[in-house]
Amino acid sequence: MEVNMSRKIEMYKAIAEGISQVMENDDKVFIMGEDIGLYGGIFGATTGLLSKFGSERVKDTPISESAFIGSAVGAASKGFRPIVELMFVDFFGVAMDQIYNHIAKIHYMSNGNLKMPITILTAIGGNYSDAAQHSQNLYSLFSHTPGLKIVVPSNSYDAKGLVISSIEDDNPVIFFFHKGLMGLNWMTLIEESIQEVPESKYTIPLGKANIVKKGEDITFISISRMVYECLNAAKELDIEGISAEVIDLRTLVPLDTDTILNSVRKTGRVIIVDEDYQNFSMSSEIVALISENLGLSLKTNPKRIAYPNTPVPYSKVLEKFLLPNKEKIKQTAKNLIGG
Amino acid sequence: MNELNNEKLIELYEIMLKIRKYEERIGEIYYEEKKPFDIAKGPIPGELHLSSGQESSAAGLCIHLKKEDAVIGTHRAHNFAIAKGVDLKRMTAEIFGKSTGLSNGKGGHMHLFDPSVNFSCSGIVGASFPQALGVGIASKFENKDYIAIAVGGDGAANQGTFAESLNLAALWSLPVIFLIENNGWAISVAKNKSTAGNICDRAKAYGIPAECIDGENVIDVYKSSKTAIDRARRGFGPTVLEIKVSRLRGHFEGDPQIYRSQEDFDIAKSKDPVLKFESYLLKNNILNHQQMQAIAEKVDSIINEAIEFARKSDYPSPNEALENVFYGG
């Protein structure tokens, strides 16, 4: 087992491996979605599952998101633990009723008499010119709805542990994987997302953030692909004598408020970096949390670098202009510390 | 077992009468403390959609069901809840928003959940169809013969979920019955102004057998349901049953029904399935007036007991509103 620890795999393989190991252990788990069978999922998250488990437990569905995501409710009511894949998060509109009026609320509306252990896998993120209807992040929108847990991993090690925790959780969980982190050979990759992944089954608890870099002067709070923009900014700032702490939240619901507040209490300065739309969002929520708890003890006002409330444009230059990046983070940090 | 003998006919009658009397009583209580009309006041606040006139669809079908079979109802679901065997006391307490209700007052009349008899319902039109598919998938996984009934109105047949679910149910040969309670109205819009063609014909396009039944005769509902349920249990896949029923009350209580002609009311009343069945039972000497009176008294007493239970129960503690958002806190 020790030897295998050196194995580095891409995030898509880590997710598929996690799903596979849960399916081996628990015959109540099955998976449905578009192109998840032979194709292995458009972003690879179900690679190899069909040949291992067969077409009863790995079901290719028609393009009928309401029907197959809604069917998870009925299967869960009979004691199953369905996994469904919503190919792009951008497509949630056609199935949102089943997600937010049923999957999210049935546990509450039944006063806890029914459980909905459903995992929804979905792809997020842009930066490859797929424009307004295939590039969004939208995890904030789902975080706003009571009853859903929200998981947004940034690397293959976390992705495997978190996907296992998601499926084994007795609540509905939406697991957002960023296309740019999956390790697909047809998309620019962030190499650091490929990490050592144990072959054995392991879990990472939902609601536990990861401090990916320690620092003293300022805290960068982020999730998913933006963690790397923060890390790269922090590395360059180190050279300039500014020590930044970088937090990867890993999950938005539950939110690890202790880790956030402890870090900002220490540094007194914070930037929230978010690839999702800025208004009424993850970044808004964290600023509110910090303001309500730390308020006047901060050295400077909290800052946000998020995607402006603008649909995602097609042209490379337009999209890149709007995305948060290392340079924006560095500049904002220097302004906060200098001024 | 489900042979339509006299005993079965009387059982059907008792279920139908229970639904009718329950709805009429709940309808009266609804207006307590609501004058001038204020939807938030009284022992039963909020919207209330009563199912008077739709007794035959629920009774005629549910009498064949087992506890393991799931019924997923609509916003107008008291008829199916009663016919499926949901505990009337706890259901009534839920409608009153009390702590002894099915969900401690968190669901209310449109969101009744009783997992002990596999009953649920929803305030969203057309939401039942996909959910029933999942029960069907589970049944096949487990190699069991339980089935799912997705109830929807004629209005729900115009939702995309209906088309999506028909396709998937046929494709995977799922043990699901799509029961369309066609009462002719989607709130205020008449079916002929909202719905092209015949609903049953839509099923045929997916290769799903369908039957259109006149709900004024519960025996017809009973027979067609039996065929559909047998098919589903034996692994032959879904059926669509469209049952033409009469909505004897408004869409919701307090609905002035300005859109409805006197003629439409008269036709609805002339097709009253409870009265029709009473005449049938009398004419065929299955029950006499005295026996009917005894059944009515029995049903009244069950309903009174449920209402008394609900009235006397406490409201939940306000802070319980924060509980059960997530399993395990």
Automatic annotation (TrEMBL), chain B:
GO biological process per UniProt: pyruvate decarboxylation to acetyl-CoA
Query: What is the E.C. number?
Result: 1.2.4.-
Q: Which UniProt keywords apply?
A: Oxidoreductase, Thiamine pyrophosphate
| The Dehydrogenase E1 component domain, residue ranges | 39-318
Which InterPro entries does the protein's record reference? DH_E1, PDH_E1_Alpha_Subunit, THDP-binding
Cofactor names = thiamine diphosphate
Which Pfam family, just one, is annotated for this protein? E1_dh
Q: Name one GO molecular function term.
A: pyruvate dehydrogenase (acetyl-transferring) activity
Name of the molecule in the record:
Acetoin dehydrogenase E1 component alpha-subunit
Tell me the classification of the organism that encodes this protein.
Answer: Bacteria, Pseudomonadati, Campylobacterota, Desulfurellia, Desulfurellales
